[in-house]
Amino acid sequence: MKKLLVDTNIVLDLLAKREPYYTASASLFSLADKRQIKLSVSSLTFANTNYTLLKAKSPNEVKSILRKLKLIVQVLPLDDKVIGRALNDDEFADFEDGLQYFSAIENNQDIIITRNLKDFKKAKIPVMSAAEYLQTIE
User: How far apart are CA 81 and CA 72, in angstroms?
Assistant: First the structure.
């Protein structure tokens, strides 16, 4: 079974129903719910998603949404090694992207799913959008 690290922007596409990306994100999470793929997120994604959703929803609503999300994804830790690699790597100008990337590397993920493809050009594992990934399995 493929292991995919899902970047925060894909999670927000799903939870905030952001068009035109919602459909592909929903399809990806549906595959995970059916146990056809395994989705992971870094723990940073939970913090960033909470912060973003609180702008439009109550704290209780956001916690309820995040509880449901946690049932579908594995949460990968941001430990000393991941943070150290992101801080000391010159390939990722954006620190948050480095954290996502090294979370994927340290946890043996097969693919990173993001809409931010340009910032992962030097990744050593495949990086694609949700729509691109879905095309590869049709």
Answer: 26
Q: Is the pLDDT of residue 138 over 80?
A: no
Q: The tokens of 89 are what? A: 């790597």
- Work out whether the CA dihedral 79, 64, 6, 95 comes out positive or negative: negative
Write down all domains in the chain, each with its CATH number in brackets. Answer: 3-137 (3.40.50.1010)
Supply angle C-alpha 130, 132, 134, rounded to 5. 70
- CB atoms closer than 10 angstroms to residue 56: 9
Angular region, 18: left φ>0, alpha ψ -120 to 50, beta rest: beta
Helix or strand (DSSP H, E) at 90: none
Cβ atoms of 34 and 70 within 8 Å: the answer is no
Does the predicted model carry a pTM greater than 0.90?
Answer: yes
